[in-house]
Protein backbone atom coordinates (compact mmCIF):
# COMPACT_ATOMS: atom_id res chain seq x y z
CA UNK A 1 0.00 0.00 0.00
CA UNK A 2 2.96 2.35 0.55
CA UNK A 3 3.89 2.19 -3.13
CA UNK A 4 0.34 3.03 -4.15
CA UNK A 5 0.45 6.02 -1.79
CA UNK A 6 3.69 7.16 -3.43
CA UNK A 7 2.28 6.76 -6.94
CA UNK A 8 -0.84 8.72 -5.99
CA UNK A 9 1.39 11.46 -4.57
CA UNK A 10 3.39 11.60 -7.81
CA UNK A 11 0.18 11.83 -9.84
CA UNK A 12 -1.14 14.68 -7.68
CA UNK A 13 2.11 16.62 -7.97
CA UNK A 14 2.12 16.10 -11.75
CA UNK A 15 -1.55 17.17 -11.90
CA UNK A 16 -2.48 13.88 -13.56
CA UNK A 17 -5.57 13.29 -11.41
CA UNK A 18 -9.27 14.02 -11.40
CA UNK A 19 -10.40 14.63 -7.83
CA UNK A 20 -13.92 14.23 -6.55
CA UNK A 21 -17.24 12.84 -7.68
CA UNK A 22 -18.50 15.83 -9.69
CA UNK A 23 -15.31 16.19 -11.73
CA UNK A 24 -15.07 12.46 -12.41
CA UNK A 25 -18.67 12.45 -13.70
CA UNK A 26 -18.05 15.17 -16.26
CA UNK A 27 -14.40 14.84 -17.26
CA UNK A 28 -13.45 14.09 -20.84
CA UNK A 29 -9.92 12.97 -19.90
CA UNK A 30 -8.97 9.32 -20.32
CA UNK A 31 -8.75 7.70 -16.90
CA UNK A 32 -6.37 4.82 -16.28
CA UNK A 33 -7.78 3.83 -12.89
CA UNK A 34 -10.22 5.03 -10.28
CA UNK A 35 -9.40 4.75 -6.60
CA UNK A 36 -12.44 4.49 -4.35
CA UNK A 37 -12.36 4.67 -0.57
CA UNK A 38 -13.77 1.60 1.18
CA UNK A 39 -16.07 3.82 3.26
CA UNK A 40 -17.74 5.42 0.23
CA UNK A 41 -21.53 5.43 -0.01
CA UNK A 42 -23.36 2.94 -2.21
CA UNK A 43 -24.35 5.75 -4.62
CA UNK A 44 -20.69 6.70 -5.07
CA UNK A 45 -19.73 3.05 -5.55
CA UNK A 46 -22.39 2.73 -8.25
CA UNK A 47 -21.16 5.91 -9.95
CA UNK A 48 -17.55 4.70 -9.84
CA UNK A 49 -18.55 1.33 -11.30
CA UNK A 50 -20.46 3.01 -14.15
CA UNK A 51 -17.67 5.46 -14.98
CA UNK A 52 -15.02 2.73 -14.85
CA UNK A 53 -17.13 0.60 -17.16
CA UNK A 54 -17.63 3.44 -19.66
CA UNK A 55 -13.97 4.46 -19.55
CA UNK A 56 -12.66 0.91 -19.62
CA UNK A 57 -10.45 1.55 -16.62
CA UNK A 58 -9.73 -0.31 -13.41
CA UNK A 59 -11.70 0.38 -10.24
CA UNK A 60 -9.58 -0.13 -7.13
CA UNK A 61 -10.98 -0.16 -3.61
CA UNK A 62 -8.53 1.32 -1.09
CA UNK A 63 -8.44 2.01 2.63
CA UNK A 64 -7.93 5.58 3.90
CA UNK A 65 -7.82 7.50 0.63
CA UNK A 66 -7.72 10.70 2.69
CA UNK A 67 -4.44 9.63 4.26
CA UNK A 68 -2.95 8.81 0.85
CA UNK A 69 -3.81 12.17 -0.65
CA UNK A 70 -3.85 14.46 2.41
CA UNK A 71 -7.20 15.84 1.17
CA UNK A 72 -10.00 15.87 3.75
CA UNK A 73 -13.26 14.04 3.02
CA UNK A 74 -11.99 12.58 -0.25
CA UNK A 75 -13.69 9.35 -1.31
CA UNK A 76 -12.81 9.06 -5.02
CA UNK A 77 -9.92 10.00 -7.29
CA UNK A 78 -8.99 9.06 -10.85
CA UNK A 79 -5.46 8.75 -12.23
CA UNK A 80 -5.03 10.02 -15.81
CA UNK A 81 -1.33 9.26 -16.31
CA UNK A 82 -0.81 5.96 -18.12
CA UNK A 83 2.42 4.85 -16.45
CA UNK A 84 1.32 5.80 -12.93
CA UNK A 85 -2.10 4.26 -13.50
CA UNK A 86 -0.55 0.99 -14.67
CA UNK A 87 1.85 0.97 -11.70
CA UNK A 88 -1.04 1.45 -9.27
CA UNK A 89 -3.02 -1.33 -10.95
CA UNK A 90 -0.03 -3.69 -10.71
CA UNK A 91 0.51 -2.87 -7.03
CA UNK A 92 -3.16 -3.40 -6.22
CA UNK A 93 -2.91 -6.98 -7.53
CA UNK A 94 -0.18 -7.86 -5.01
Name the CATH class: Alpha Beta
Order of helices and strands: HEHEHEHEH
Give the C-alpha Rg: 12 Å
**Which structural category fits the helices and strands?**
alpha+beta
Average pLDDT metric: 92
What is the spatial order of strands in the main beta sheet? Answer: 1-4-2-3
The CATH architecture assignment turns out to be 2-Layer Sandwich
Percent strand: 15-25%
Count of structural domains: 1
Would you give the CATH topology? Answer: 60s Ribosomal Protein L30, Chain: A
Q: In which range does the helix fraction lie? A: 40-55%
Taking the sheet with the most strands, its summary is: 4 strands, mixed
Determine the CATH superfamily: Ribosomal protein L30/S12
Number of helices: 5
Low-confidence stretches: none
Termini separation: 9 Å
Morphology call: globular
Total beta-strand segments: 4
Task: Outline the structure in words.
With 94 residues, the chain is of the alpha+beta class. The chain has a single domain (2-93), classed as 60s Ribosomal Protein L30, Chain: A. Helix content is 52%, strand content 18%. α1 (2-13) packs antiparallel against α5. The chain has a 4-stranded mixed β-sheet, sandwiched between helices. The protein has 5 helices and 4 strands, in the order αβαβαβαβα.
Amino acid sequence: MNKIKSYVGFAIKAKKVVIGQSLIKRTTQKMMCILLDATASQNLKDLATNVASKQGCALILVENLQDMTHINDLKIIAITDESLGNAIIEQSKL
